[in-house]
Amino acid sequence: GQLTPIRKVVVLGSTGSIGVSTLSLFEASGVEVDVLALTAGRNVEKLIEQALRWRPTVVVIEDEALLPRLRDSLQNTGIRTAAGASAIVEAAAMGADWVMSAIVGAAGLAPTLAAARTGAVIALANKESLVCAGPALLRIARAAGGSVIPVDSEHSAIFQVLQPACIHRVSRLILTASGGPFRTWTRDQMAVATPEQAVAHPNWSMGAKISVDSASMMNKGLEMIEASYLFDTPEERIEAVIHPQSVIHSLVEYVDGSTLAQLGPPDMRSPIACAFAWPDRLPWPAPRLDLAAYGQLTFEQPDQERFPSIGIAREAMRLGGGAPAAMNAANEVAVAAFLDRQIGFLDIAASVAGTLERMNSLGALMEADADPVESAMTTDASARRIAAEVVRQVQRHN
Ligand code: NAD
Ligand code: MG
User: Fold this and answer.
1) Atom of ligand 1 nearest to the CA of 127
2) Which amino acids does the record list as binding NADPH (predicted)?
3) Is any ligand 1 atom within 6 A of the Cβ of residue 215?
């Protein structure tokens, strides 16, 4: 049966990997949705194509130089067009019932907060906004009568198996990690890894930034922070285990020794469907799990030596204050420099650690502002400045 009533939706970052999966799920399930807005960064051609298919009230492109192209292509369709970061914030706050937050990076924070203030259900893929200002975002969503439902597969898994009545009886959250494309590489091999090699993920097809994060395992570091905020769990009770098949999406261990896991084929439409229908379930022709075809599922301890990012994220959690926001900003700067071939792959984690260290010694990780969102944005901006300097130093060294 149909989910009723027809849901008004906004998809932020509709042209990206998660955005496309979201629209593909709407299509595959035949669910009726009223699309209020679709937004993109720069991919104007895909946005035009999506607009013609989904007939949203408005489409927004972040890059203002692309507005004329968008406007020309959609004239006489009745679809409104707009451009710029503030137009995306407005689209996020149009009064949708459900907002997919799938912009990449801290650029997703302001629109996600704007959606949260309207009391919408936020399907949250944009983990960086939680890492940046998690407690404030969750508080704002709840105060407005809305909710945040995780789309990140690990957090969706935990969300699905966590019994709210026994949240205080959780002994460990165990996040699974694929290990990424460099799981079996030596540090010497990783030192000369190219962007092409880093974005070639074995199990998932994702945007470039999260693919690099997955290769460095900073993705797991960001996800540990995400989990600590979403499920109000301290750093010591969050662990990561490598599981190359990506079939078990995460596990919750209770104090009585019972451990619950959620399984599924690696397809992001499954956690998106969960976030769309929760607490109901969305009927759609989902790929099914064929355990016998896998034969075996395997697990490994993450290697701290080759993948220092998990340790850096733990340190950021222990430091608290603005440290997670600073770590995230530094990582965004370093990943962009790596994708631009300015620094090597191992320089990413080194630059993030260097930025955190420098900010900590400057006392710049304290909450600078009484308002936690302002504070996160200030920390984000100063971490970007310092990370850019650190990256330039690394470049001169190479
Ligand atoms: P992507 O790069 O494929 O897509 C990003 C989207 O955001 C695109 O629509 C792009 O146009 C838009 N965008 C980029 N910069 C922007 C800006 N400055 N302002 C406005 N819009 C901008 O990324 P993705 O893989 O879809 O990931 C999106 C988010 O979901 C990320 O936070 C990622 O960590 C998270 N996530 C992704 C996956 C996955 O399987 N792809 C899984 C879990 C979590
Ligand atoms: Mg994930």
Assistant:
1) 32
2) 15-18, 41-43, 126, 128, 207
3) no
Which of 274, 284, 14 lies closest to 153 in space, CA to CA? Answer: 274
Domain closes at, from 123, 151, 179: 151
pTM above 0.90, yes or no: yes
For the CA of 84, the nearest ligand:
1
Residue 307, domain CATH: 1.10.1740.10
Ligand 1 pocket, residue 322 CB under 6 Å:
no
104 Cβ below 6 A of ligand 1: yes
Q: Which residue has the tokens 């996800």?
A: 223
Residue where a domain terminates, one of 151, 182, 213: 151
Same domain, 147 and 170: no
Please check whether residue 291 lies inside any domain of the structure.
no
**Which residues span the domain enclosing 135?**
7-151
196 and 174 inside one domain:
yes
Q: Does residue 165 sit within a domain?
A: yes
Are 228 and 83 found together in one domain?
no
Token pair 């299509």 is at which residue? 27
Helices and strands (H and E) in the chain: how many? 17, 11
Does residue 32 form part of some domain?
yes
Residue type, 233: T
Write out the two tokens for 95: 């009064």
Report the separation in Å between the CA atom of 362 and the middle of ligand 1, taken as the mean of its atom positions: 32
- pLDDT, one tens digit for every residue, the chain (398 residues): 556 678 999 999 999 999 999 999 999 999 999 999 999 999 999 999 999 999 999 999 999 999 999 999 999 999 999 999 999 999 999 999 999 999 999 999 999 999 999 999 999 999 999 999 999 999 999 999 999 999 999 999 999 999 888 999 999 999 999 999 999 999 999 999 999 999 998 787 899 999 999 999 999 999 999 999 999 999 999 999 999 999 999 999 999 999 999 999 999 999 999 999 999 999 999 999 999 999 999 999 999 999 999 999 999 999 999 999 999 999 999 999 999 999 999 999 999 999 999 999 999 998 777 899 999 999 999 999 999 999 999 998 88
Residue burial 104-119, b: 16+ Cβ < 10 Å; e: rest? bbbbbbbbbbbbbebb
